[in-house]
Amino acid sequence: MDSRIELYERRLNREAAARKQAEALLEQKSQELFERKLQEQKLAETALRESEQRYQLLVELSPDAILIAAEGRITYANAAAARLFGAQEPADLLGYTMLNLAAPACRANVAAAMLDLEQNKVCPTVEEQAFRLDGTIMDIAMTRIAFIYRNKTAVQIVARDISERKRLEKQLNHLATHDALTGLPNRNLLTDRLQQEIAYARHHNRQFMVSFIDLDRFKWINDSLGHEAGDTLLKTVSRRMSGCLRKEDAVARIGGDEFVLFLRHADKDNPYEHMHVVDRVVEAVSTPMTLNGHEVTITCSLGCSSYPDDGQSAEALLQCADAAMYKAKEMGRNKIRLFDPDLRAQIDRKVRLETDLQQAIERDELMLHYQPQVDLQSGRIVGLEALLRWRHPELGEIAPAEFIPLAEEMGLIMPIGAWVIQEACKQNKAWQQAGFPLIRVAVNLSPKQLNHPGLVDFVAGCLSATALDPACLELEFTESASMDDPNTIIPLMHQLKKLGVSLSIDDFGTGYSNMKYLKNFPIDKLKLDGSFVREITTDPRSLAIADAIIAMSHHLGLKVVAEMTETDAQIMLLIARACDQAQGYYFSKPVPAEQCARLLQMGCLPLPTSGKPVLRTLMPFTYAAVGN
Ligand SMILES: Nc1nc2c(ncn2[C@@H]2O[C@@H]3COP(=O)(O)O[C@H]4[C@@H](O)[C@H](n5cnc6c(=O)[nH]c(N)nc65)O[C@@H]4COP(=O)(O)O[C@H]3[C@H]2O)c(=O)[nH]1
Question: Quick check: do 178-339 and 367-602 share a fold?
Answer without folding.
Answer: no
